[in-house]
Structures are given as C-alpha cells and as structure tokens.
Amino acid sequence: METVILMAKAPLAGFVKTRLSPPLLLEDAARIYEGLLLDAAAAILAVPRSRAMLFFTPSGSGQYFAARPFGGFIAQPQRGASLGDRMTGAIGTAFRGGSKRVVIVGTDCPGLTPGRIAEAFRELRTGADAVFGPARDGGFYLAGFNALPGTLFGGAVDWGSASVLATVTRRCRAHGMTWSLLREERDIDTPADLAWLVARLNKGGFPRCVETRRRLILPG
User: Fold this and answer.
1) What is the distance between the alpha carbons of residues 84 and 190, in angstroms, rounded to a whole number?
2) Contact yes or no for 185/141 (Cβ under 8 A)
3) Which of 11, 107, 184, 200 sits at 20 to 30 Å (Cα–Cα) from 207?
4) Would residue 219 count as lying in a domain?
5) Residue 162 maps to which CATH number?
C-alpha cells in the first residue's frame, strides 16, 4: 500500500499565511491559504491506488476536516512540538498502518499535481530510499520514503530557512540513504511569491490550482 499524507492547518485568519499580511488582510491571506489547501487535497485524491491521510492543526479543527472535500482522507490531529516531530509522527503512523511507501506534502505549493506525486512513488519503487520535491526557497514541497526516516527531521533543522533541504539530504548521505529530486517548484509564503503566482496565472496554463485562482483577484 502507498500512502499520501497532507500536513494541513485550518484556514483561520491570523493562523495561516501571516507573512502575506501586509499587504493583504489576514482574512484574505487565510482565504488564499484555503485555496492552496483545497488544491493540494484534490491533487492527492486524484492519485490512483493510494491511501490519503490528513494530519491537521489546531487539534480542535477536526470538524472542518471532517466535511467535504476531505471525506476521502483519514484525518487526525498533528502531534509533536516541532514541524519535524509532527512530520515524523505522521509518517510513522502511515507505516505502522501497513504502508510500504509514504509521500508527505504540505499546502504551500500550487504546482503540486497528481502526476508529481505519482512520479515520487515511481522513484521509491525503482530504488531510491527517499525522494524530495525541492522548493525554490531552499525547503521542499514533498518528501517520500520507503521506510521510517528515523531522526532525519529531528534536532537542529531550521524550518523555514534556505538550508532545510541541504540539511536533510546531508543527513541522508550520513545515513547511507539514496535519494532522488523532483522538479523544483515555488511555495507561496511571501508577497513576492504571491505576485509571481498572479503573474503566472495571468499568462494561463500551469499551475491549474483551481481553488486558489478563485480566491485571487486577477485582471480581466
């Protein structure tokens, strides 16, 4: 069995995408986050022959994630003090539940597609111990494993910095793990990222990100 995990936050004003405000109001930043969240969920549910799991925060937001369109997910709260702890815990839950391969993604990347997730699983099936989707800011929008990653995400990982992927792949090398890299994409975290996305969408084509488009004001 192959499992895709979505690490999600409830789209609450002041809780998500706060770096977009200013210039956006916190409520508008939360709406854009919800678009990214729904697009990521749709991409995961379109991956054939895979189980979809969702780990949410805050813990009291389970009712939001019990409603459509999240009905296709096995949903439960995130647990752990740091992002690394929470991701490691989610991946461990999937493996203990019978998964042979696990891919974990966040909600920041409008370029995430079912095909990209399927490509990650192909890399894992054909010999890579791990696979990463690099983000332009130095992090990653996707990570996949054939086994529990152990302490790969633990300790002094400066989450949100430009050194995240370099730190994690250096740890892979130290543990004798092979890894593959997918195509680089761009997360939407800052006003500059949002301006880039709007410019891309005005040109048409990729990324599709249907729900995110609906929450943006585009010329024409």
Assistant:
1) 22
2) yes
3) 11
4) no
5) 3.90.550.10
Q: Is residue 220 part of a domain?
A: no
DSSP H/E element including 6 = strand 2-9
By the 8 A CB rule, do 186 and 109 touch?
yes
At a CB cut-off of 8 Å and minimum separation 6, what does 137 contact? 162, 186, 187, 189
Residue among 32, 39, 33, 70 nearest 52 (CA):
70
pTM, to two decimals: 0.94
Full domain range(s) for residue 203: 2-214
Residue-level length of the chain: 220
Cβ atoms 143, 130 nearer than 8 A: yes
- With contact defined as beta carbons under 8 Å apart, do 191 and 20 qualify? yes
The total domain count for the chain is 1
For the chain, helix, strand, coil in percent to 5 are: 40, 20, 40
* Per-residue pLDDT tens over the stretch 35-88: 999 999 999 999 999 999 999 999 999 999 998 889 999 999 999 988 889 999
Q: Please provide the DSSP assignment of 38-95 as one string.
A: HHHHHHHHTSTT-EEEEEEESGGGHHHHHSTTGGGSEEEE--SSSHHHHHHHHHHHHH
